[in-house]
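Render this sequence as a predicted structure.
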Amino acid sequence: MIAEDDVVRRWADVAPGARAPLVVLEPLRRFLDARGLGEGGITLRPVGDGHSNVTYLVARGELRLVLRRPPRPPLPPSAHDVLREARVMRALAGTEVPVPRVLATCEDPSVLGAPFVVMEHVAGPVVTTDMPATMDDAAARHAAGEALVDALAALGRVDWRAVGLEGLGRPDGYLERQLSRFSGLWERNRTRPLALVDDVARWLRDRCPVGGPATIVHGDFRLGNVILAPGPPLRIAAVLDWELSTIGDPLADLGYLLALWMEPGDPTLGAFEQGGLTRRPGFATRAQLAVRYEEQTGTPAAGIAFYEVLALWKLAVLMEGNVRRAQAGATDDAYLAAFAPGVVLLAEHAARRAGL
């Protein structure tokens, strides 16, 4: 849904004291014209159900593009970095990891008021609450989990130095830096006392492993962040949402995937389950996914519980920041505005997995 003040034709149309728009059509048209990306008028449609960066399907005649930019401020430091996303996707082009092709980037705030990325539109479903009807059987559900793990294994095989990602992150001390960074974010994001978040942080610090050889880490690797190819056989057409990517411990991505991979009998994660899709018959278990990862990578996943707890704790910290944004009136996203109880559920789930 596009709010009335999300899209304006010219900067002059923004009333004094009004919220900054998300898209300004005339400077965007000039930007696209200068790069040969279509011609004529622009129509916009929000795509996906993500609640982080803002994503629009841009139509110019027969051409379809995807525009991605940060939400309105206030934003936590280093979050919502669409230029980082573009850098990683460009580096991964031509590797085993399927990503959308980046067509243009913009750092000039005079265009839309924030950096943005324009990329190709990749056809296919993004699965959140339901599998597409043509893929909704036990075999396809099982294959979806295997395809995710295979894509994660492929990401771990990419030589991040050879593809130009030197400096994206430091390969040493990844886990310790994650604990330090997200502890600081919690102090900035918190809107109320939540002792469980602090309890889990202490548990993580006391059990932090050394970690294995560094690879590219996606940071938000889950079923809802991939596009499936529109026809059989089931495969991943593109991996999306690289804003949190860095260089670090690959088990962090596996832990995140498994932490949100719900099974029958698991306590609810409320709205964050997006319908509890993976509870349904046919989907692989977390144990089966971990075994496939070990087979594909040769990396033991015996200590994966730490990484699952880390993922849930980090997610609680990040979502509390979105709750703060909603309370400040910086977003119209009803999901974020209603997510305060979800942060509590995430913290409880993390504590439960930690045995606290």
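Summary. The radius of gyration is 20 Å. Residues 137 and 172 are 43 Å apart (CA to CA).
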